[in-house]
Specification:
This protein is α/β, with parallel strands linked by helices. The chain is about 55% helix and about 10% strand. Strands 2-3-1-4-5-6 form a 6-stranded mixed beta sheet, with helices on both faces.
């Protein structure tokens, strides 16, 4: 049985906020407790049972989940995606919360003993109320940190499960045909639209030819500007290239539907400067809609701007030239 990936592991983890937990704790506090015949000092038994119920609930919703999260071997790609979402120091936050909320263990043990040896129902009730107040106070003071960890878990749960396979990341400016390409050659079915920035997350697909299996990742479109000026959607594409890509398919829209060749080549130069030319393959797309002379011009322009690198002329929409691309990539994989 294959081991679950990190997104799968966190999908059953729920980190609740203070108000949600407070409501449940108070419900347990006011619930009735069944008492067997012959139990002595029933008042102590009742409040000890309520402490046990609250502790069991808090351990289930917080301590167990935080312990689970702390043991996940977080890969750099996932940490960067969380950071893009506005959550810094995720691992430190989880471990800090886990240590802080451990006091619930101590408080539950302490107050259970106090209630057990309380002198009368009045004292037992007062001790129980004190216990509830103290554990809720701990959670209330942690609510902001819990909220951040909850956001991180939601982000992680929505990510694909990446395998240890050769990985192609498809990159380029918006509306160059990235999602159409990925949908054409892989198992992924990304949403395709005539509007820019339709793809807002990384989308995973697979290419299987014989016994060879590849991962292919569709990414959001990137504009030709420095990394520190990119929005959070664009940054996901850069992070995918940085941490996932063995090879980058950079799509050029020869038709210049939304963006000029100059803008597209500026982005290509940025990616080559950032990640190296050896992992970049350029696919000149939409050749079904431009003349052979335009395609020749695009190739010359690419060479003048970034130098020599693998070039393919394709139509992602109609599947033209894609088999040649896949065959060449499979040769690379089999010889690497």
């Amino acid at each position: 049985m294959e081991e679950e990936c990190i997104p799968e592991k966190v999908r059953n983890v729920s980190i609740y906020g203070f108000e949600h937990v407070r409501e449940h704790v108070l419900k347990i506090s006011s619930s009735n407790v069944r008492i067997s015949k012959g139990v002595r000092r029933k008042y102590a038994f009742i409040y000890m049972a309520k402490i046990d119920g609250i502790y069991s609930y808090l351990r289930r919703v917080y301590l167990n989940n935080l312990e689970k999260l702390s043991k996940l071997p977080m890969e750099e790609f996932y940490l960067e995606v969380i950071k893009i979402a506005g959550i810094d120091n995720y691992v430190e936050r989880v471990n800090k919360l886990r240590r802080r909320l451990r006091i619930i263990d101590k408080l539950s043990d302490q107050y259970r003993v106090k209630v057990k040896y309380s002198s009368d129902v009045k004292e037992a009730k007062a001790l129980f109320r004190e216990y509830v107040g103290r554990v809720l106070s701990v959670i209330r003071r942690s609510d902001e940190e819990l909220s951040k960890v909850r956001e991180a878990v939601i982000v992680l749960s929505k990510m694909p499960c990446f395998e240890d396979l050769p990985t192609i990341v498809v990159a380029g400016m918006p509306q160059t045909g990235k999602s159409t390409l990925v949908g054409r050659i892989s198992s992924a079915k990304p949403k395709v639209s005539q509007f820019p920035f339709t793809t807002k997350d990384v989308i995973l697909g697979h290419i299987v030819v014989g016994e060879v299996k590849l991962q292919i990742v569709d990414t959001p479109g990137i504009l030709d500007r420095p990394f520190n000026e990119l929005n959070t959607i664009e940054q996901k594409a850069y992070v995918a290239i940085k941490y996932l890509a063995d090879l980058v398919f950079f799509l050029i829209d020869a038709l210049e539907t939304y963006y000029s060749l100059q803008s597209q080549l500026k982005l290509l130069s940025n990616i080559i400067n950032e990640f190296g030319i050896n992992k970049v393959v350029v696919l000149i797309n939409k050749i079904d809609s431009v003349s052979p002379e335009k395609i020749k011009y695009v190739k010359e322009l690419i060479f003048r701007n970034v130098g020599e690198l693998p070039l393919y002329s394709v139509s992602a929409l109609h599947g033209i030239g894609l088999q040649e691309v896949i065959n060449d990539i499979l040769k690379r994989v089999n010889t690497s």
